[in-house]
Amino acid sequence: MRLVLIGAGHSHLEVLRVFGLLRPAGVDITLVDSQRRATYSGMLPGLIAGHYETNQIQIDLDRMCGFAGARFLNTALLEIDPEQRAVTCADGSRAGYDLLSINVGAMPVFPAVNAPANLVIPAKPIAELLPAWERLITSVQCGVVKNILFVGGGPAGIELLTAMQYRMDRLTTPGALSFTLVTDAEVLLPRHNARVQSVFRRMLAQRSVRLLFNRRIAQIQPGAAITTQGEHIPGDVFVWATGATVAPTLHAPGLARDPAGFIAVNEHLQSLSHADIYAAGDCASIRGKSYPRSGVYAVRQGPRLADNLRRALVGEPLVAYRPQKRALALISSGSRHAVAAYGPIALSGAWVWKWKDFIDRRFMSKYNVLR
Known about the structure:
Helix content is 30%, strand content 27%. The chain has two domains: 2-107 and 245-326, 3-Layer(bba) Sandwich (FAD/NAD(P)-binding domain); 117-243, FAD/NAD(P)-binding domain (3-Layer(bba) Sandwich), CATH 3.50.50.60. The chain has 371 residues and is α/β, with parallel strands linked by helices. The chain has a five-stranded parallel β-sheet with strand order 5-2-1-9-21, covered by helices on one side.
């Protein structure tokens, strides 16, 4: 039996770990990913802020595949052919499968704007964000960039903004940079309670971040973003962290999708159109379920995905994954300070950051100690 994993997302890391501990006999595993190291998104803001080194938030995929006894195709996916049960990769390689699992994450939603590529930094994929961040540091230190505009008022946008501001404050003179956050919503963090929203609104105001609500960006040009109302908002660089959409490189003719284009799966994380294809994390949408596209859910789906892939390989009944109704959100704020949000609860302080740091390091230790 041939199991092919597309993408080294959080769920697939758990699949590799579980199959390395106990793999059914006669199963050949292949991982396809264009990166040699998987970056843990939960610690990314800490890396941007300077609290972590790169190697502390990345997992060696060669090592993970070695532990799982898997073949690693270090290349980008070109196409999935569900009818032929095969995937084609950018390096010309082709891998057949009996079971296929997809865990490739998602991309920020880019509206139809005229945006010069050198001016826009997308929050994802992380492999593009990190080198763009290093280039931005150089541009700021050279005095080329003075205004940074963030598009998106969700956790990703706020965590990136506060992390970048924290780091820049230590690399530049006070007041050398201005920060603006633009969102098409009426409030920050619309999925969270009013207390969390108030904490961050007050925090950003104290840090002199300009907040603009109910604005949708229609166009970007050198020096400014233009809203649908025609308002010009100054910006030299634009960090894009809005919503989520399926990765444009995920070509799979005939594979069931939801109305937004995400891979449609059932409660077993199994494709609605192809019983031999599974998907998890941000790229997937579970029929009849509504929950945020968050790393918390991708991590929670990992054990169930691993179990169901094993069950499918040995002919056992599948088990349903049921997303939790509420998930704890630990939102960092640049410094070693964070906010905990759970339902109507909002707690903040240095102790929350230490709590988050402990959870994140524990997660990383599950994969970086494998041999």
